[in-house]
Amino acid sequence: MNRSRRIKLQIFRITVFLVLGAFFLVPIGAMFEFSTRGNAINAPRTLEAWIQIAKTPGLTDAIVASLELAAITSILMLVLVLPTMVWVRLRLPRISRIVEFICLMPLTVPAIALVVGIKPIFIWMSNFTDSILILSFGYVILVLPYSYRSLDAGLSAIDLKTLSEAARSLGAGWGTVMWRVVVPNMPSAILNACLLSVALVLGEYTFANLMNYENLQVAIAYVGLTSAGTSIAVAVASLIFAFALLLILSFVRRPRTGFAAADPVELDLAKPLALSGAVIGRAGR
Question: Please, which pLDDT band fits residue 250 given cuts at 50, 70 and 90?
Fold first, then answer.
């Protein structure tokens, strides 16, 4: 690639970055500007709306509940989807298309129709607990299409069969294979799936509203009826939180460790050399 082509490509990248940055940051800046306005036309700027986030009754509890739902949903998604995908790739590759179809199906069903369909299950579960955290079971269904694509890309980037067979030949159980072989080789894919799950849960409104629970988005809607500035401040804070997660993810990389110098080994040429338990032959022949 010549120098002029590299310069044009660099200019194109910078232009795209600035345009996309403006597309996301300008609305957020406008929302922040609105949340800092005073009550009168000539009133000075104030952070009263942001201070009211902690003082508004029920808003803090809704924020904590949404964060707990995001964490539980991410864990349930990984426990359910990742081992299933690994098992299908290794043992049942013929049904991989069926599993993909099932995971992508929630994209074709509107959220309100999905709520109506599974509401009897939540009514039955309410006999045991009325905690808002039971919404995590419904949220797992919503995040399936996005988490599946992310994890599928991560598994496609590694030689899963060779790694698992090597670990199993050394005596590792399936739990050890998942925790010490599969997970360390696809950290970016797992983080991407978790980030998508967190973003979806923090922005979900239909499930919680129709199930008569108060999560972050439902609380923002209620606060907006009495204080528009506070509701906008909470929305900006949630967007900044999601952006911070994305920024942290972009800097997370698998640690690079150099190879330590091996200790010198003296070979006895009179003894046979073995590899994986099988005698290869005698050195020097």
Answer: low
Question: Dihedral through CA 62, CA 66, CA 71, CA 76, nearest 10?
Answer: 120
Confidence of residue 5 (pLDDT cuts 50, 70, 90): confident
Q: Residue 279 corresponds to which amino acid?
A: V
Q: Please tell us whether the domain made up of 58-226 is placed in CATH 1.10.3720.10.
A: yes
Interval 126-167: pLDDT, tens: 888 888 899 999 999 999 999 999 999 999 999 888 988 888
Per-position DSSP letters for 10-31, written without gaps between them: HHHHHHHHHHHHHHHHHHHHHH
**Residue 281 Ramachandran class (φ > 0 left, ψ -120 to 50 alpha, else beta):** left
Dihedral of CA 154/158/159/161: which sign?
negative
Domain extent listing, the chain:
3-49, 58-226
Does the pLDDT at position 249 exceed 50? yes
Cβ count near 177 (within 10 Å)? 21
CB 151 within 8 A of CB 195: no
| Per-residue pLDDT at 46 | 84
Nearest Cα neighbor of 142 from 112, 180, 184 is: 112
Q: How many angstroms separate the Cα of 168 from the Cα of each of 161, 174, 176, 177, 183?
A: 10, 8, 9, 7, 16
Residue that the structure tokens 């029920």 belong to: 58
User: What are residue 272's phi and psi, to 5 degrees?
Assistant: -70, 150
* Contact present, 235 and 220 (Cβ < 8 Å): yes
